[in-house]
Amino acid sequence: MCDYNYYQTPASFDDLVMVSDGVFLTGLYFTCDPHLDKQAITLSKRDLEIFKMTRAWLDAYFLHHECGQCPPIKIEHATAFQQEVYEILKAIPYGETVTYKDIAKRIAIKRGMTSMSAQAVGQAVGSNPIAIMIGCHRVIGSNGKLNGYRGGLKNKKALLNHEKS
């Protein structure tokens, strides 16, 4: 059974739902995320230590303070390729963006391949269950446009604007 709790964001963002296995943060979703099981989040709402740590990290993020190390995260059911993409996402600096194509090139070089599908990278980015902390909002299209975001394009744009202010 998973535990859930809420985080109230500043006004320009949708609120967040934190999910935990009791020890690790296993999900951080905007309330508009279509993958969020809205019925389940009413079943087990407890205030765990991991949620307190997550709130402290998010408070620092939204106040433009140094966030420090993320709370302990565990991503379940991710493929090796998705994990590889998530590691790249974690390394994107605050306030910066990269393209899906950039990530695909990095993985291709690392694997000794001539190319890698940017669409495959996009699917992996879109499966990220930890919003904000794993910076999937920092990935944009090669044309500079904001492409799909599980947490909604409104939140993606707000996060990028927040990081540039």
UniProtKB/TrEMBL annotation:
InterPro entries: MethylDNA_cys_MeTrfase_DNA-bd (IPR014048), MethylDNA_cys_MeTrfase_DNAb (IPR036217), WH-like_DNA-bd_sf (IPR036388)
GO biological process: DNA repair; methylation
Enzyme class, UniProt record, top EC level: transferase
Reactions catalysed, as given in the entry: a 6-O-methyl-2'-deoxyguanosine in DNA + L-cysteinyl-[protein] = S-methyl-L-cysteinyl-[protein] + a 2'-deoxyguanosine in DNA; a 4-O-methyl-thymidine in DNA + L-cysteinyl-[protein] = a thymidine in DNA + S-methyl-L-cysteinyl-[protein]
Enzyme nomenclature, EC number: 2.1.1.63
Gene3D superfamilies: Winged helix-like DNA-binding domain superfamily/Winged helix DNA-binding domain
Keyword list, A-Z: DNA damage, DNA repair, Methyltransferase, Transferase
Keyword Cytoplasm listed: no
UniProt key word Methyltransferase: yes
Family as reported in the entry's similarity comment: Belongs to the MGMT family.
Protein name: methylated-DNA--[protein]-cysteine S-methyltransferase
